[in-house]
Amino acid sequence: MVAEALPKSPEAPLVLGLQPAALIDNVAPVDWSLLDQIPGDRGGSVPVQKDELERILKEVNTHVSATPFKKMAGGSVTNTVRGLSVGFGVATGLIGAYGDDEQGQLFVSNMGFSGVSISRLRKKKGSTAQCVCLVDDSGNRTMRPCLSSAVKIQADELNKEDFTGSKWLVLRYAVLNLEVIQAAIRIAKQEGLSVSLDLASFEMVRNYRSELRQLLESGNIDLCFANEDEAAELLRGGQEAGPEAALEFLSRHCRWAVVTLGSNGCIAKHDKEVCLFENAR
Question: Does the record's keyword annotation contain Kinase (predicted)?
Answer without folding.
Answer: yes
